[in-house]
Structure formats: structure tokens, C-alpha cells
Specification:
- By secondary structure, the protein is an alpha/beta fold.
- The protein has four domains: 230 residues, Alpha/Beta hydrolase fold, catalytic domain (Rossmann fold); 134 residues, Rossmann fold (3-Layer(aba) Sandwich); 185 residues, 3-Layer(aba) Sandwich (Rossmann fold); 107 residues, ANL, C-terminal domain (GMP Synthetase, Chain A, domain 3), CATH 3.30.300.
- The protein contains 32 helices and 36 strands.
- Strands 1-2-4-3-5-6-7-8 form an eight-stranded mixed beta sheet, sandwiched between helices. It has an eight-stranded mixed beta sheet with strand order 15-14-13-11-12-16-17-28, with helices on both faces.
- The chain starts with 13 loop residues before the first strand and ends in an 8-residue tail after the last helix.
């Protein structure tokens, strides 16, 4: 019997009901005894009229207890919902029928129960595990009542080309099945162990309560036995009926997913998205099978209900309705203006420049590892290669909407593959090795590519870690190597096949369809996939061209990965220097000079970390190298703040170049721009609002920038703790930086909640950066919103005091972090010294005095000064300090712990 003794369960919710059965498994006239958790009577007692009913269906081997947070959330007096969480027959505290119940029986059972309860629309179903399929079966049979669908880790289709998950294969094995699921409680304990963090003892006991004794677990074993492993299984036709029925489902759908689930992995999520492309999707990194235990998902579900269901009625198109196919997870979005220039796809100039005299000119080059000239393609060759590979990809089934992960170093091969995919309408997935093996695997698996194109090292990892079902090498491989790596074909073979076919894509993809998923650096948490449409990629090209004056005929050295692929789109000759673009510090002055000489470069793209190493290695330059660099007219450096002294050193190396440091992020690049001369003017001018941060200049062509003001406690509107506010452009107001532009990303891939949080009013994108405008309209960046220090009586943004501390000769890099509870945090300075200290820990007294004095000059009182041999930085840019990690480390040190390495 369910009582209030089970944590989180109100005794008033528990009820039993007798239900006449119409299931084929039962003789006519059979009445079954059900147990449900139902907050309906409680709402009635409280005088609350629910907006609808949330019908929650558990899977195996859980019970209605899984949905207790939903039952509690449904009693919110502002947005009440009746929540009915069922215990399926033979499960939980419902009747043990002694009858083997198939999938069709369970769908019919649920319908019998809702008839007996007298449920009326609007009804939203919520399902988990095999309860997801059953809830969907009910939904398809009751579309006149249905207003929406919520799904957590589940599946409706088992691809014939792959086996069911290993854990289920083991549970189904004749030697294991009965003992593992019924005789013992092993299946329950293994399922409970999947929770992360681990379930507390009292929660585990609550989940075990209905299943003590083998006679109480027969339904657990039967549920496993009813898994349709192939088309011969008795329940397969019913599963197929439900799966196909989803394609016509016309109600809002929310899918919340734990990607660490060893059973219902991302491949099942991908299948569901393909069937319901308009669904809102959010993957909770780090969460697994028992998502409702791993994360508090009730607030997200009820916010979605309020926005999408409440007041809309069943099947109507209320706010946030399902929408059209291909808009999955778009959230705020960026509506296309009514009046706009004709769309020119990213690859438009390839075709134009391949014809006529320009066709024989070099389009793209790459330098060999030793710095000598490597491969190159003319514009005509580039156009033909792209067309051939595009046709070859189409021949292997890649088409509009297919996802292709490109794990190829920047250069000729990556350029050809990228433009071939875009021309086909395939969505390219780009996540570089700078994320590290773990971060890279998380990103690629989460994007669920259909095909992965990679070099041997990437293919080996993809094979071992299951990144994609179909693998393509860059070049032809020996047969034995191809078998070992599981490679289907190569780009070279695809080009040959495409050339033979003569097929050419007649019409390009829809400009507003997804074109690319580009992953962020992961410097403030797990890397996020950022989705761009074809129109937005084209807008990025146009913004770069107009802002920096880069046009056909220019010649650029692409030493910064995001720009390595823009050269052909701009019509500029491009060359990739001899370096690992995913490790910027590998660019040497000699490699940069040789690349510049190879194309007589007028433009250089390089990250700050790359420029630091260029300056550190400039002693090896020859007279010819120096001459090649002296002809560069424009340098762009992005990816992290660029200190003025670094730019000054680069200016001496590139004496004719105009040095620019555009500010932006993966979600919008670029946003603003400033030159070295403008940086110096901003630093010396007596302008209101100048200082306390890095001046990043004025908005670029087509962009708007605004500020969402900080509250006195350091919060901002929309974070759930402070009232709303409107964006401002007034000087000297510190807050979160907002941007709106044609080239701002469309949405975060399968991160619906993140997208919701990033969208401010009227199409603004919330950057997560904090800053202000000065009186001349220039933007100053003060740090990340997540890194604000809330000291007693003041809010401290980190960049200003960090710059002041870094002005000391003995300090190379500084980080200002907060330690302690929000609102009473102590300000701690963590510095990397010159020369570097050998051990991390408290700074010597003399250095501490100087650091405190420098910070005080910037208006900040530092409570403690710590030193580290090297600042922990993000692995992609090697320049963004991991302040969150430093804050945790500093708290440990100041509490008396051993310093260790942050």
C-alpha cells in the first residue's frame, strides 16, 4: 500500500480503482484493480481548476513513484494541472493479473483506465522507457482528447541494421531472463544503479517497495520478454503501428533526454526526431536513463505546458504549437525580414570564379607539415571537385537533412567536403579535436551524424566509440585497413563515382533549412551545438566581407579554424599554414611567413594564442620571411580578448597591416570590431564609460548590440531571480550583452532549455557576456555572466581588475574569482607569475601587496592572492581562463586544503 512514508508522495494522491477490461488478454467481463497517484481530488479540495490532465506512464521496472515531482508541481495555484500517474497492471501496486500482457493489451489497458477515470481533454501524455510507447499508443487512439506529448528516454523503433542494446540482450537471454528479472531483484537494482547521482537509500527503497518477492516481479520479467527484438516478435506489428502513426501527430511535443542511458541511447532520440521533426528537444548532459531522478525536469515540463498547452485546447495551434517540419528546437528564432537582398548561397562564388580567366587561378592551398608548398586547387578544380563529391554523396544516400560529421583538418579536403555537403542540403557537423576525446565524443554522439568523414585517427575513434553508423575516409585505404576501421568508402572514391554519374544538384536547399551544427569551445561547460541555416551562413560571409573589405582577389592565410572555411565563400585565395589548427599554439612565425609567401597574402586570420607563439618564435625568420609578412594588409584575431601589448608586438612584425580584433562567439561571429589604433584611443581618451574591461569597438555591418542591465545582486532579467527589463544602449550601464543580426545562430541543437534561456525579447540573443557602452557607443566586455563576483554590497566583474593586475611586470595572467555564498563572496586573485612558480598556493607577501594595490586602483578590494604555475585555460583557444574551476580550487585552498593543481 502506498503511504506518505514514501519520500515525495502525498498520501492524498494514492487511490485504487476497479476498471472493466477490454484487453484481448482478458476474458470478457474481467475487472482489474488499478493503483494510481492522482492529485485531482487534492486540486478539487483546494478549489483549483486544472488547465488539463497530464497522464504519466512509467516503464520497467519503475512505477508511478517516478512522476512524484510532476504531481507536486501540478498543484501550483497559478498554473494547476491534474496529474494522473498510473501503475500499469502487474506493476507497482496494481493487480498482479497472472496473464502475459502484450504491448497492444497494455495500450488497451490504459484506455480502459482513462475511460473509468472519465478523463476529458485537454490531455497531455508523458511516458518513460516502455511507458513511452504505451503512452503514445494511447495518444494516437485518443487524438480528440490529446493536447500534447512529453517523452523521456524511450524508443518506438529498432533499426533492422543494429542489435538491441547489450543490457537488454543479456536480460532476454534464456539462461538469465527468469533469474535476472523475476527470481531475483537484479534487474531492479541494476536499473536503480543507473541514476546519477546515486539514489538515496530511502528513494531506492521506495522504488523496490512494490516488487518484494518473486511473485510481485512477474510483470517485470514479462515486460522484458515483450520487447520486439525483430519483425517476428508478436508485439512488433503494434510497435510498428505506433511508430508510423507518429508521423501524422499534430500536437506540441517535448522530448527530454538523458544521453548517458545505456538502453535508450541517442540513436533512438534521433529516430523520434525524424518522426516528429517539430518537437522541442533538450538533452541533459550527464544525465541517464532515470532522467526524472537525475534532473528536476518538472519545472521545464510545466513551463512548456503553460506556453504551449494551457488555454489552447486539444489539437489547436496555440503559442509554441508544433510548427512545420524542419524547425526542431528553434525557440526564439530570427524571423527573416520582409525586405531583403536576394539569397546567395555560401558557395555562390565558387561557380562564378570557376568560369572564365579566373578559373585557372589558385583558389585554395595548404602547406605541407615541413612548411613547404603542398596541394592546391584552381577555382575550376575546386568547383569540379565539390560537384563530384556532392554527386558521390548523393549516390550513397546523403541528401537534404542528412547529418555529416567532418573530422578532417582544415585544407583542401575539408573545404571540398564542406561545400559538397552544403550544396546537397546535408547538415555539416563540425566539432574540432580541441575539445579533447571526451568532449569531442560527447559532441559528435549528441549530434547523431548519419555519416562521418574523417582522417584515420578520427575513424578509429569513431569505430571504437560509436560516433556514426557509416564511416568515410578521406583517401582510399588498403582493403585490410578499411575493414579494421569499418570504412564504407572514401572522398576520393565518391568523387570518382560522382564524376562518372554526371549528376549535378539542380536546385540548392531551402535558405532557411539547417546547414551546419558548429560546436562551441566548451570553456563554460559542455560544448553546445549551434545550428546555422544556409541564410545565416551566407549572412556571416556578407558581414565579414563588408566589415573588413575582403573581396575576390584578396589572399588570406587561415590560421584560425572558424575562418579557414570562409575563404572560398569570400572569393579569396586561401592557404592553411603548417600547424594544427585545433592547437593554435603550434603556429610558428616561420610557418606563418611561408604560408603568406605562398599566396602573397594580404589578410591573416590567427587566434591570440597563435599570435603569442608567432612572436615567441620570430627570431627564426629570414629576410624573405619578413618581406612576406610585411606585405600583409589586414590581420584579424578572434576567439579571446587580445591584449594591446600583444597587438603591438604583432604590429612590428606586420608593419603595413591594419590589426583588428573582432568580438564574437560561435553563436554570432563577428559582433563588433576594433583596430589597434582604436584600442589605443579608447585607452587614453577621457570618455565616460571607458575602462573596466576590454574595448571591443562598434557593431559590425548589420548587427545591433544592447545591454540587459544587471540587478543590484548581480542577476539579470530572465534568470528566474529578477524582474524583467528592456535592453538599453545608454552609456555606463553594466549588464548582459545582447546581439541581434542576420548571422546570429538559429538555435542550440537539441538544447531547447538552453535556447529558451538565450533568447531575450524581440529577437535578441543573450551572449552570456557582461559589459557596457561608453559615451561614444563603443562596447566594453567585462567578463562572463557566470563569473561575476557578488561581494558584500557590490558586484565585481572580473576583466577590469584582472587587467590592472596584469599590468604588473611579475604577472603574466590573472583571474579574479569569488569564494563563498552568493552575496557575501570574498574576492580572490589567482595569478600566473613571471617567472612561473613551481607550486600553487598562497602568494608571497610582497606580491600579494602589489596585487591588492593594483586591484584597489581598479576599485576592487581583494581578500586573498594565490599563485599557480599556469592558469587553467580552455583547450581550444588556450586563452580563456577557466574561472569556475579556479573558484572551486581557491575555495579548497582557503579552507585549508592541499593546493594541488587547479
Amino acid at each position: 500500500m502506498v503511504t506518505a512514508a514514501w519520500p515525495g508522495v502525498d498520501a492524498e494522491w494514492s487511490r485504487r480503482i476497479e476498471v472493466p477490461s477490454t484487453a484481448a488478454a482478458d476474458p470478457a467481463g474481467t475487472v482489474r484493480r488499478w493503483h494510481v497517484l492522482d492529485n485531482g481530488p487534492q486540486l478539487e479540495r483546494l478549489g483549483l481548476a486544472p488547465a488539463g490532465t497530464l497522464l504519466c506512464v512509467h516503464g520497467n521496472p519503475t512505477w508511478s513513484y517516478l512522476w512524484r515531482s510532476f504531481l507536486a508541481a501540478g498543484t501550483d495555484p497559478v498554473h494547476p494541472w491534474r496529474v494522473v500517474a498510473v501503475d500499469q497492471l502487474d506493476m507497482g501496486f496494481s493487480e498482479r493479473t497472472g496473464v502475459f500482457r502484450r504491448l497492444a493489451d497494455r495500450i488497451r489497458d490504459l484506455g480502459d483506465l482513462t475511460d473509468a477515470l472519465g478523463l476529458h481533454g485537454p490531455v497531455v501524455t508523458a511516458g518513460h522507457d516502455w511507458g513511452g510507447v504505451i503512452s503514445l499508443g494511447w495518444a494516437l487512439a485518443h487524438q480528440h482528447q490529446l493536447a500534447g506529448v512529453v517523452l523521456t528516454n524511450t524508443a518506438v523503433h529498432q533499426p533492422g541494421s543494429s542489435r538491441i542494446p547489450a543490457a537488454l540482450r543479456l536480460a532476454l537471454h534464456p539462461a538469465v531472463h527468469k533469474w535476472g528479472t523475476t527470481t531475483s531483484d537484479a534487474f531492479l537494482r541494476v536499473t536503480h544503479s543507473l541514476a546519477s547521482p546515486p539514489l538515496p537509500a530511502d528513494i531506492r527503497d521506495a522504488y523496490m517497495a512494490p516488487y518484494r518477492g518473486a511473485s510481485r516481479r512477474e510483470g517485470v520479467g514479462n515486460f522484458v520478454a515483450d520487447i520486439p527484438v525483430d519483425a517476428s516478435h508478436p508485439s512488433h506489428p503494434e510497435l510498428a503501428r505506433v511508430a508510423e502513426g507518429l508521423r501524422g501527430l499534430d500536437v506540441p511535443v517535448l522530448m527530454l533526454w538523458g544521453p548517458r542511458d545505456p538502453i535508450f541511447s541517442d540513436r533512438y532520440l534521433k529516430d523520434l526526431i525524424q518522426r516528429i521533426p517539430a518537437a522541442k528537444v533538450h538533452r541533459y548532459e550527464g544525465a541517464g536513463h532515470l532522467l526524472a531522478e537525475d534532473r528536476d525536469i518538472a519545472p521545464a515540463v510545466f513551463d512548456w505546458l503553460t506556453a504551449n498547452i494551457a488555454g489552447s485546447g486539444a489539437g489547436t495551434d496555440g503559442t509554441g504549437a508544433a510548427g512545420s517540419a524542419g524547425t526542431q528546437g528553434t525557440g526564439q528564432g530570427h524571423p527573416v525580414p520582409a525586405a531583403q537582398d536576394p539569397f546567395r548561397p555560401l558557395w555562390a562564388l565558387l561557380g562564378e570564379l570557376s568560369a572564365g580567366p579566373s578559373g585557372t587561378g589558385t583558389a585554395i592551398s595548404e602547406m605541407a607539415p615541413d612548411g613547404s608548398a603542398g596541394r592546391s586547387l584552381t577555382w575550376a578544380e575546386l568547383e569540379k571537385n565539390v560537384a563530384d563529391v556532392s554527386a558521390g554523396l548523393a549516390g550513397m544516400g546523403v541528401g537534404s537533412g542528412s547529418r555529416v560529421s567532418l573530422m578532417v583538418p582544415p585544407g583542401v579536403d575539408l573545404t571540398v567536403a564542406l561545400y559538397a555537403c552544403l550544396r546537397l542540403g546535408a547538415v555539416v557537423v563540425v566539432a574540432d579535436a580541441g575539445l579533447g576525446t571526451r568532449g569531442l565524443s560527447r559532441a559528435v554522439k549528441g549530434a547523431t551524424p548519419d555519416v562521418l568523414v574523417g582522417i584515420d585517427r578520427a575513424l578509429a575513434a569513431a569505430r571504437a566509440l560509436g560516433w556514426a553508423a557509416r564511416l568515410v575516409s578521406v583517401h582510399d585505404l588498403p582493403a585490410a585497413r578499411r575493414r579494421i576501421l569499418g570504412v564504407e568508402t572514401s572522398l576520393t572514391a565518391l568523387a570518382r563515382a560522382g564524376a562518372r554519374s554526371g549528376h549535378r544538384t539542380a536546385d540548392g536547399p531551402d535558405p532557411d533549412q539547417p546547414a551546419a551544427v558548429l560546436f562551441t569551445s566548451g570553456s563554460t561547460g559542455p560544448a553546445k551545438g549551434v545550428v546555422y541555416t544556409h541564410r545565416q551562413l551566407a549572412a556571416m560571409r556578407d558581414t565579414v566581407a563588408e566589415t573588413f573589405g575582403i573581396h575576390p582577389g584578396d589572399r588570406l592565410v587561415a590560421g584560425f579554424a572558424p575562418f579557414a572555411l570562409l575563404g572560398p565563400a569570400l572569393g579569396a585565395v586561401s592557404v592553411t599554414p603548417a600547424m594544427d589548427v585545433t592547437a593554435p599554439r603550434t603556429l610558428t612565425a616561420r610557418a606563418l611567413a611561408r604560408a603568406a609567401a605562398a599566396v602573397d597574402a594580404t589578410v591573416v586570420f590567427a587566434s591570440p594564442a597563435a599570435l603569442r607563439n608567432v612572436l615567441a618564435t620570430q627570431d627564426g625568420l629570414t629576410t624573405g620571411d619578413a618581406a612576406a609578412l610585411s606585405r600583409v594588409e589586414l590581420l584579424l584575431s578572434a576567439g579571446a580578448p587580445v591584449p594591446e601589448p600583444l597587438l603591438a608586438g604583432v604590429q612590428r612584425l606586420l608593419p603595413r597591416a591594419s590589426l583588428h580584433t573582432p568580438y564574437g562567439m560561435t553563436e554570432a561571429l563577428p559582433v563588433t570590431d576594433i583596430s589597434l589604433e582604436q584600442i589605443r584611443a579608447a585607452g587614453t581618451g577621457n570618455v565616460a564609460g571607458a575602462g573596466n574591461g576590454v574595448c571591443v569597438g562598434l557593431p559590425v555591418h548589420g548587427a545591433r548590440v544592447a545591454i540587459l542591465p544587471l540587478a543590484a545582486d548581480g542577476t539579470v532579467p530572465g534568470d528566474g531571480t529578477s524582474p524583467g527589463a528592456e535592453p538599453v544602449t545608454a552609456p555606463c550601464v553594466t549588464g548582459e550583452i545582447l546581439v541581434s543580426a542576420p548571422h546570429v545562430k538559429e538555435y542550440y541543437d537539441r538544447l531547447w532549455l538552453t535556447q529558451q534561456a538565450s533568447a531575450a525579447s524581440a529577437g535578441w540573443h543573450r551572449t552570456g557576456d557582461v559589459g557596457h557602452f561608453d559615451a561614444e557607443g563603443r562596447l566594453w566586455v567585462e567578463g562572463r555572466l557566470a563569473h561575476i563576483v557578488t561581494a558584500p554590497g557590490s558586484v565585481v566583474t572580473p576583466v577590469g581588475p584582472e587587467q590592472a593586475i596584469e599590468s604588473l611586470d611579475s604577472v603574466r595572467m590573472a583571474a579574479v574569482v569569488g569564494v563563498g555564498p552568493v552575496g557575501t563572496q570574498a574576492v580572490v586573485a589567482v595569478v600566473e607569475t613571471v617567472p612561473a612558480v613551481r607550486k600553487a598556493g598562497p602568494a608571497d607577501p610582497q606580491l600579494a601587496v602589489r596585487v591588492r594595490a593594483a586591484a584597489a586602483a581598479a576599485g576592487v578590494s581583494v581578500a586573498a592572492v594565490l599563485v599557480v604555475p599556469a592558469q587553467p585555460t580552455d583547450i581550444r583557444h588556450n586563452a580563456k581562463i577557466d574561472r569556475t574551476r579556479l573558484s572551486l580550487w581557491a575555495a579548497k585552498v582557503l579552507a585549508g586544503g592541499r593546493p594541488g593543481t587547479p
